[in-house]
Design goal:
The protein is α/β, with parallel strands linked by helices and 533 residues long. Strands 3, 4, 5, 6, 7, 10, 11, 12, 13, 16 and 17 form an eleven-stranded mixed beta sheet that branches. Helix 2 packs across helix 4. The longest helix is centred in the first third of the chain and has 17 residues, at 88-104. The protein starts with a helix and ends in a 23-residue tail after the last helix.
Length: 533
Amino acid sequence: MTDELTDNLIKADCLAWCEHSKLKLNDGVRFELAGRPYLDDIVNCDKRVMSVIKGSQVCLTTAKFLEAVHGCYFRHFEKNIIYMLPTVKQAETLSKISFDPIFQYNPFLKKKLNSNSASLKTINGRSIVFVGAQSQKVGDSTAKDSVNLRSIPADIVYRDEIDLMDPDMVEISKQRLNASRHRIECNFASPTVPGFGIDQLWTEGDMRYFQIRCSHCGKYTCLGRDFPNSLLCVNNVWRRSCVHCQNEIHTQDGRFEAEYPNRRNASFWVDGFVSPMADLEGYMYRYNNPKNSAAKAEFERSILGQATIEASCQLSETDVRACCSNQGMSTFSDSECCVGVDTGNKLHVVAGYRTAPETYRVIHNSCIDSKDAYAELYDLCDKLNAKTLVIDNGPDIHAVRKFQNNTPWEVFRNIYSETQYKIPQWDHNDGIVKCNRNEWCDKVHGVVTTQNLVIPRRCYEIDQFATSMTKTAKETKPHPETGIPKTRWLKVGDKEDHYFHATLYFLLACSQRSPVVDGHAKKPIKVVNKFYV
């Protein structure tokens, strides 16, 4: 590579600059890109607004503040760079601990340092301003403002640990970019709870997963999304493993792939397993031996980079994926199946059978989205050899009743009841089943966390299933009048919890049937229904 090409590369690429200049982060500690190929796409992002949901210690924060220094050193921006943290104290502490040593141990940078304080670094005539996202009320009004963010024109805003920031201050920081021709926003944090902060921003972006290509079978594995099947213990050593052929895989063979590439904003998921410093053995010990539900939830946030609340209150995608088998999705069955259907704008279907008194196998789940949804449901149930169906009583009760009255199977409309305890009440005359919502939500949670529910191997629809299963959580709140604590399962996040309830209906349907052994139940003679054919 010629000197001119090298100069152009290090001016344009922060990571190349760090490597070429042998930049030191501290006394004797050099920045190293080796083993961290995931940083390249994040630092050189192709969109103006980006959000990164991350596990801890993946070197992302380091890469971002080096990016800020690089931008000032080569004068890429005309205005300031704002670096936000939840509080002023945190911002100033980061400035001292992480930024000051860079200038102290890199003389070529120190020569360009025009001013240096805890709240301001000016490098080659361009400034990084450190601010806390703390607000103050304006007079007696509900309006909020911040002296930290007033009158600071900026080209780029970094928001570090955005989940802990005042949302109003996040909005105010956007206004600092109004006079910029760059208008770059970078949000990054370890997640907290689903549907909030960085987790919400991640789902609104193009959702990029770091996919590692297996050199043996050529297929891809995402360590975080495929966990725990993406880690395998061989000869007492834990290694990153292809979920398709179980051979070892390496992060240098990975790349980010966007699930929704046409969305305006970029969003990256970086789990802690991709880091070259990842303690895989320690991580798996923590995962397999959690001290309590809070410890398990913290593992999912800080290592997986996955938003969650305590596992006793809400399922995680990891819980659901741990139930995956090596069998693919089925659209046909010789065994008699039970089917649960959640209704709405779309029909969400979960089908399978009970294999023992408290164990279940799902062979099919799908979302039916068409104007002929109930006719498609009829055809699907026929192929799956349906015997008993439980279907949501609403919101389109007329369509549900029409389906119920024109099918050859046992079809029950479910009605949740706060007073129905223990055994569900089955009305065979009217085709209605009543059950206690909280008790059966507990049952869904229980069969998943104990892995007494077996589901097909990972595919797109299983990923949708896993996400939907996390959108219902149990909360305990006092009654507004009596003050007596009451526990209820409530929708959370984007509230798309359809598969959770379809699974609940599936379990209800199974409670009507005896356990079925694979392939032993014979398919009955088809009853031709003139309404649907």
